[in-house]
Amino acid sequence: MGPSNKALWKRCGIAATRSVKPVVSCRHPCAANTDRQLYFLADAPHVLKNIRGHLVRGQSFFLPAAIVTKYELPTDEVSVKHIRELAVIDAERDLKLAPHLKPAHLDPDHFAKMNVASAVAVLNHSVGAAMRTLVSLRLLESEALTTAWFVERVFRWFTLMTSRYIGTAMSLFKQDAHDEAVAFLKEFMEIFAHVSIKSGNAKEMFKPVQAGVLITTSSALHIQHQLLSVHKFKFVLLCRLSQDALENLFSCIRSRHPVPRPLEFKLMLRLIMLSQFFKPSTKGNYGIDDTVDLIEFVEIKKAALKNGVKAAGDELLNDSLLDDVAPPLMRCKWSRWSMCLGTSPIA
């Protein structure tokens, strides 16, 4: 969503406005002789953080009149003041309605603004349900229902755009659920195309976060339709369209230097790759692989070049480590290795 990304979008003809249908793809540069398209998306967690950012800065979202009428909302304004009032009331209670919401999430510092979990804590379905409960108890004014409705809509959009489980995946096996999800995403695009984001009497402008919602959602709808209908996928997890893996890598690289230089980036990347190769993960649902690391084969190859192929092969055969680590594996794969080393297979 930064200037570099928007410059690339503009160069490729990607655009989104209030009145014109979003242009979300261009001809794939590596498939010039086909109709294959290259789709552009903004990262959904970043879009969510931007929505939270507008709210905590004191800006309000003004919904289109058609949406206010359709859902019988008490007002068209979505304001963070109702969420702040909820946080104050919840802080005084032992049994909390929104346990993940903290006052610090509504006044984030520089690093908290980059935290996705703090944004989800604000724009969460439990926050919307808590505001509805407080309105029914007359602890919040009825105008908070509009904010609750908006928060629930944003959270559902985020859940669909970052789906990781079959229950929230896009799939044609449950046609009714799929059609309902597509209809919701299209309506969400319509809302953000005509919503106004401003504070006080400021001039109304089409914000980058609105373009991000339109482009990301439209691209996701096109991609899931192509994968499900054309390529016959059973289901599509839209989280695969996010850059979570890249963000996890960047967070590790920036752990020592927030803005690393090229050499520091290269060294940190090498350390991360080596640590993942040699050190088994303490978390996860997989076991340790008992196979021999490829680095041992590299050492054998070096020995073959230095001392002669036959000597290296004899060294491998007499190595006690071979019998201790994975003798069945080595016996079944020795014929393949022997062809590389020029030795005869084990009898």
TrEMBL record:
Protein name: Transposable element P transposase-like GTP-binding insertion domain-containing protein
InterPro entries, alphabetized: TNP-like_GBD (IPR048366)
Organism this protein belongs to: Amblyomma americanum (Lone star tick)
Ranges where the Transposable element P transposase-like GTP-binding insertion domain occurs: 72-165
